[in-house]
Amino acid sequence: xxxxxxxxxxxxxxxxxxxxxxxxxxxxxxxxxxxxxxxxxxxxxxxxxxxxxxxxxxxxxxxxxxxxxxxxxxxxxxxxxxxxxxxxxxxxxxxxxxxxxxxxxxxxxxxxxxxxxxxxxxxxxxxxxxxxxxxxxxxxxxxxxxxxxxxxxxxxxxxxxxxxxxxxxxxxxxxxxxxxxxxxxxxxxxxxxxxxxxxxxxxxxxxxxxxxxxxxxxxxxxxxxxxxxxxxxxxxxxxxxxxxxxxxxxxxxxxxxxxxxxxxxxxxxxxxxxxxxxxxxxxxxxxxxxxxxxxxxxxxxxxxxxxxxxxxxxxxxxxxxxxxxxxxxxxxxxxxxxxxxxxxxxxxxxxxxxxxxxxxxxxxxxxxxxxxxxxxxxxxxxxxxxxxxxxxxxxxxxxxxxxxxxxxxxxxxxxxxxxxxxxxxxxxxxxxxxxxxxxxxxxxxxxxxxxxxxx
Length: 455
Ligand code: HSE
Prior knowledge:
With 455 residues, this protein is of the alpha/beta class. It has helices at 13-24, 26-33, 47-53, 64-68, 85-95, 105-122, 138-145, 160-172, 176-185, 194-197, 200-214, 233-241, 311-328, 374-384, 397-400, 426-437; strands spanning 4-9, 37-43, 59-61, 75-78, 99-102, 126-127, 151-157, 224-225, 244-255, 266-277, 289-296, 300-307, 359-369, 389-394, 402-403, 412-421, 424-425, 447-451. 36% of the residues lie in helices and 24% in strands. The longest helix is centred in the first third of the chain and has 18 residues, at 105-122. The termini are far apart.
């Protein structure tokens, strides 16, 4: 049978990895797909760079629409990124009856509903394994391997840049800025690292996993997003002393209504730094690696680990999608795997809960004046809010030093009080923190880091 023909938009590191892997493993890939898969056209503004990387006979063009207009092209791979021209071209490719493979998490997290609806209308597939956790086949696992399960929660290290920075901070005891510079020097972090360090990239990926797990439309605008740029080296150290590691997690959880807590049913969708018990495997995922835990009611806890970025790991996911499409494109559209795992008429309308409605446990660090009764006042506020304490760690005053206050007032001995709590509703914690912050003995803004036992 004639090979399936592919056009590639955007010839960067993932594009060249895709060429390399297709070339190296072509016999096995053909054996699995049932026919050959060849990239026959590439669109790239830097024509010379693209020509240097592709095989002879591949047509390199600067106008992506030449690929979309070519009736011989069956599949378009979009590796441009972002929600600008990439969105326009993906929609045009779909309208032209092409199947699309994309690694573009931002595009799907923000515009997925529109894109999947267009694909359904035109009877084509949009495949996006490479959009979440790079080479880890987590979309396949969630959509197919775990299809028997009612998914309870997902928690993932889904941004390698931030995991590298957190590993550096813990291993070397350095501050965030130093670790970020090292990540940039090694090429893990972009010159403008905002999307990674502020949690946006992880939130795009968590949004996609959330929709597949719970059958709700993609709703990036409802995700709670907090990055790691405010994280202090001392909190990583204190967490370690208490038996925890701090990771940037993308979390999504199904919540039943809880009348005693006054919370409603819905889906949690959040990205933030998180204490995780050191004994959990995921707490030991270091450097730029990714890992995703999925809890299903039948299977229990599962863990997927691997490279979340890079040329060939991401190409591995892109080519897996090419093979899937090659196998299925002649099948009746109704027999294909639905984009978001559930058939369009079986999607759920469960709401994404506001962060104030989320239930989790907490690490709190309070810099306080080391004087009689402070701890009693702090724990009294938590008790009145119905928040149960799990552990308290108080540093000796001389460990954090005594500093003079301005204006020639007497020295005030200061100490850090670290409190771990049991689960409570975030709104209750917000109000307790406001009350504790108002105590004259609390000298600095309270640090709050959420904690997940992932049991
Ligand atoms: N910038 C991402 C990361 C890789 O650091 O994991 C692409 O999503």
